[in-house]
Amino acid sequence: MKRANIKFFIVAFVFFINCQFASSESLESLPISNYPNRPIHLIVPFPPGGGNDFIARFIAQKLSLGLKQPFIVENKAGAGGLLGTEFAIKSPPDGYTLLLISASYTVNSALYSLKYDSVNDMSAIAQVSQGAFVLVANPSLAASNVGELISLSKSSGTPISIASSGHGSVLHLSAELLMSKAGIKLLHVPYKGGGPALSDTLSGQTQLFFSTPSIALPFIKSGKLKALGVTTLKRTPVLGDVPSLQEAGVNGYEVNVWHGLIGPKGLPIFVIQKINQELSKVFTTREATELLEKDGVYPSVGSPQQFEQLIKREISVWKEVIKSSNIKVEL
Question: I want to staple 300 with a disulfide (CB 3.0 to 4.6 A). Which of 32, 130, 233, 242 is the partner?
Answer without folding.
Answer: 130
